[in-house]
Amino acid sequence: MSMARKIRMVFTATLFLCADLSANLLHAQSRIPGETKGSTMGWGGGAGWAGGGHFHRGGGSIFSPDSKLLAVVRITRVVLWDLTAKQEVAVLENDDPVRCFQFSRDGRTLAVAVLHRVDPAKDRIIIWDIDARAKRCQIEQGRIVWQMEFIGDGDKLAVASRSRKKGPGKYPQTLRVWDTDTGEELVQLDGNAGRQKKPELYRLAASPDGRLLAAWQLRTATKADIVLWDSESLTPQRTLRGIGSVGQLQFSPDGKLLAAATRVPPRGNRKDMMVGVRLWQVASGKELSATAFDDAGVKPGDAWFAFAPDSKSLIAAGHLYPSPSDSETEFRLWEFATGRESNLGLVLGDPSLIRRPGYWYVGMDFSPTGDWLAISDRQPGPQVKLWNAKSRQLVRTLEMNVEQPGAVPAERVAPAGMAFSPDGRWLAASRNTTHNTYETFVWEMDSPDDRGGRLSNAR
Fold first, then answer.
1. In terms of C-beta density within 10 A (0-12 exposed, 13-18 middle, 19 or more buried), how is residue 287 classed?
2. What is the pLDDT of residues 9-64, one digit of tens each?
3. CA pair distance 163, 174, nearest whole angstrom
4. Domains in the chain: how many in total?
5. Stated pTM of the model
6. Which of 252, 345, 363, 388 could be cross-linked to 353 through a Cys-Cys bond (beta carbons 3.0 to 4.6 Å apart)?
7. pLDDT tens digits, one per residue of 399-430
8. CATH number at residue 315
9. Domain that holds residue 75
10. Helix or strand or coil: residue 332?
């Protein structure tokens, strides 16, 4: 198999790692000389940990929907990089530390949630016009954003948020929909009207066309539902009941299926609930099938997955705890179109993916064309392994070498996030460089050929 010569990164951006409010999210931001505080969150595909279509810990950077820009957080700023020109083209100043950010589906709007440095009542969301590089409006909600999704034609922003106040009742969350042209609140959604006025909301997902919003919420302390909302009428279309805690909620690329990382009802010889991925048909609300991890130690918040672009399979990973001082990660390939379930490491012939020791986030993503499967790794150092998704052959290992003086030793460096651009031309990945700092790498890619694939130099 022929290979292009060694890849060069398009550019790198140093990021600052901050503490998170949830154990299964990573916060990161760019380091600016003289500044060491603040936080930002991102959760893949269209939103920034930097969200939307995929669920990744992106290390504070996201691609625009047209794949022309990469947005990177620098504490209070969002910096826009032109990927073709390989240069910085705009700096969006938000005055306070960025928590999360997300592009609209047409790429013309960027929503940035910030945390006020002093007064939590001044937490807000800033709506940016990307073409004008100017602020369009502000959403003065006075609450910390847990997750947000653009819905409809991008004229509405659904926001799950909660108060930052201390004391009793500090965690109740609300789901509100805001007008992104005026910053006005349109409605507060309540999928359990008459039962609980302020349901707890932890997970949101917007369909690929923006017409539906899926919201996982608690009815009581032990019972939860997933409610499907129509983005135009803002009315509930369907309710999926009997759902436990959800670690990830996502529509399939074709929008016909909805998947959740949650507890799976007993099946076969199993008598207890196991954590895995459940799958529903969006049009009917019918549950189609489910897969479960082999080990009972996996928790919903420690499981995540990625759909294949053809919406016929997905890969899933789950952390488990054999002992209080030890942990492992289990990987699965679920081809639900045929009902086949396999250990991903066995399928790819990679022993390190059969069951990996340690609790380190592993990024997983398919390229939009379905040609590539990328998985970030930290053994023996930070790297991204790239497979031909069709032949399932390992094509290349992309190393993120540590070169700075005083950097963390290679064996202790961990990847922070990874994602393909929407057009599949670019691959971005992050890793820590020194204590509490991160660096983002971007590679330019060509489509694989029939010999297993190749990569072009990104010059």
1. middle
2. 444 443 332 222 222 222 222 222 222 222 222 333 334 433 332 223 334 688 99
3. 9
4. 1
5. 0.81
6. 345
7. 776 555 455 555 555 566 788 999 999 988 87
8. 2.130.10.10
9. 12-444
10. strand
